[in-house]
Design goal:
heterotrimer, A alpha+beta (163), B alpha/beta (601), C alpha+beta (127), A: 163 residues, alpha+beta, Glutaredoxin, 2 domains, 4 strands, B: 601 residues, alpha/beta, Rossmann fold, Ubiquitin-like (UB roll), 5 domains, five-stranded mixed beta sheet, 25 helices, binds flavin mononucleotide, binds FE2/S2 (inorganic) cluster
Chain lengths: 163, 601, 127
Amino acid sequence: MEVEVEFIDEMINGYNRDKRAIVSMLQDIQDKYYYLPEDTLAYLSSAMEVPISLLYGFATFYRTFSLQPRGKHPISVCMGTACHVRGAGRIIEKIEREIDIKLGETSDDLLYSLDEVHCLGCCGLAPVVTVGDDLYGKITVTKIPGILKKYKTSKEEPVSQID
Amino acid sequence: MKPYRAELMVCAGTGCVSNGAFQVKDALENEIKERGLENEVRVVTTGCNGFCGVGPLLVVHPDGIFYQLLTTKDIPYLVEEHFLKGRPVQRLMYTPPEDKLPVPKMSEIEFFKHQMLIALRNRGIIDPENIEEYIARDGYTGLAKALNGMTPEEIIQTVKDSKLRGRGGAGFQTGVKWELTRKAKEKTKYIVCNADEGDPGAYMDRSILESDPHSILEGMIIGARAIGAQQGFIYIRHEYPLAMKRLLIAIDQAKEYGLLGDNIFDTGFSFDIQVHRGAGAFVCGEETALLSALEGQRGEPRPRPPYPVEHGLSGYPTNINNVETWANIPVIISRGAKWYAEIGTENSKGTKVFSLVGKINNTGLVEVPMGIKLRDIIYGIGGGIPDGKKFKAVQTGGPSGGCIPDSLIDLPIDYESLKEAGSMMGSGGMVVMDEDTCMVDVARYFLTFTCDESCGKCSPCRDGTKYLLDILTRITEGKGNMEDLDLLEGLSKVVKETALCGLGQTAPNPILTTMKYFRDEYESHIKDKKCPAKVCRQLNIYTIDEERCVTEGHGCGVCMRECPEKAITGEKKKAHKINQEICVKCGACYDVCRFGAVIVE
Amino acid sequence: MPKITPKDLARIREKSRQSTTLREGAGRAKVTVHMGTCGIAAGARDIMSALMKEVESRDVKDVLVTTSGCAGLCSREPMITVELLDQPPIKYVDLTKEKMQKIFEDHVMNGNIVNEYALAVGSERAH
Ligand SMILES: Cc1cc2nc3c(=O)[nH]c(=O)nc-3n(C[C@H](O)[C@H](O)[C@H](O)COP(=O)(O)O)c2cc1C
Ligand code: FES
């Protein structure tokens, strides 16, 4: 992928080239591409005059960041305590079987990726799964295929609008 | 402001939104227009109402009628019946689990009846995106009082007298912390609101941010005045986009009204607040790690002392408090320390918000006076355990806390009693567990969490949690031996005493309490190779009740298709069978069988 | 918006009093318009509009307006019940817009029951 130099430069200036804002810059990059592309990191490192190891340090320390491309429909299964005791582990396994990727992976067609998160703050609805910005509560193993079906075609029907 | 005869408060907390609250709101507004009621009835969106398990929900004022589980289909009927003809619709009301008749009024529903709202005082009552609604409910009067007629010392004294303790974990006295920061030598001082809310299973901070963001701003401005800080920061989890949005709106409005910024209320006092979005790391909730993150470094903890009150953000004195702590401040100032200190117990004053989740009928956020009995929360507010199951334990304090067993059901809930029982208050998560929860698995769950979230800076935590987790995994897989129990205990002590920060120091707590109260469960995993709750699947044996499979399910074959290992064989209309040699005990067949024909032993 | 002062806080509170009263469910007076099918057919909607107009134009903040179903006396609709704090409810029947205005002025605002329109004092069940 081509590095979008203009976007990066503009972003850096937006933060006044402040080295303390590097995590925020990485967040902006992640928000745009849903992962941290290697070349973009290299460009950021030279533009900000910081070692690239620092950027990789952040990228692997914080959960938000991914060094691999994420799927078009990133699936997150909540593994917070409330969701765990209500059977979230089995939900993950069902999704793994359903879309044939393991936790932490992205499908070859870049349609899905599967991750776990620790508590989305909707514990009252446990177990909880999000697909992109859509949130599904009180999930059961048998509900999974129906939910995933919505995303198989590229047409999207969002059911919630947390923006 | 135009008068209305009725206001419909639609909950727009995250839980309800995900269940379609905005669609319900749009449908309501359309239908109200359709019926020509738009000048009489108004729809207001509020923050989280707390009873998240039954959303989307709607509270109708002035009568306080509570509607639940709404869908857009219900709306035309509801509008016609209730708002046009004045006949509340019973079908959409809340009916307690054991009862037949619905309870129309919110104030009479068990879940709400026993609550006492201070930190959540405005939840569901105001529109969080409108500062005037906050002001209408006495918002910013605490600030006006603090700035006009109270010296910083008097503010601190009031908070000290209220005996408010930090709601973020350790329960340190807030007034004392403020005083220490005020007395620190440096002139530049900072205050921080810790909105990282890392405890998986607790979401009160999110709810306060979403339903009443101004209460936190007001608390912080008062705190800044008392401490002498010029700049404040709010560190918020990135998983909370809605809370972040409302917070930013609130800050803009407060600035516009001159309640933040230069020369507040013409007193010469200036203060500003910046919001910092976290990037996802549990340890960043720990105060020194949070400061590192704010400084733009990796969020790793530092040794204490020096404490942040002396050597905090960029080396300047910094006072850190939790969201709920800040939200209590305005009321303490406006109503006085004496009023506040009358609520609660000797050493734990005021109220605490708990997130009551897990295996419980009424899930949601509850705010109750300190000292309330566990029984009143579980069986009173919570309405008991679903499906007639038996209550086993409640987990409090998150990954740093412990499990309180059934035998301590009459325990008063306050900082000291919880500690004595081996757990802690923490941020107020209460995850209820029933007979189907395996306590060894719970301990293993928390160690998986802490091991994963350990930042790796100190070896007791990095290696210790890993080793503890290995032992627990061994036990849940039936490969443990009795010596493992001593090993767990010994290693837990070492980690507790030697880890650098609170994460490691408290990580063994879930093991120690479950071993204390549920040793028999550990023993049956080790000696009998059985998981009494049938959660640890490696110890289970899955078989098919052939008769049920044929008579009930007509050999439907769903299990066969689901089995990832092709261990199930059979034909339509005939009984299916699991080949035990191939079976990997994933439980998929059990999950998908709708006829209860898969048996777990 | 210029900066506000502590006095402005009180002003904003006063402005929103009606809404606060509503949400706390604690007004000085409560007017219930009976809106069963019969009531609506007999013109209860007009009565409601007239009532809301009174509330708005007089800028009163402590009067709750609610609706309820048919009061069971369909021949005398439109009908309202007026309750002042600590006083028994009064039912008014055969209403018109003009009567509504007078009732609002005399009874709701000044506490004098308008006997000529009143059906009876008291009620078969408390609201
Ligand atoms: C591992 C760890 C995680 C923590 N996470 C949080 C958190 O998410 N939110 C919070 O307010 N405090 C958290 N704390 C407690 C903070 O370190 C600190 O004590 C607290 O923010 C002080 O505020 P308080 O006095 O108002 O409670 C955590 C502590 C530890 C050791
Ligand atoms: S535990 Fe899953 S949302 Fe909180």
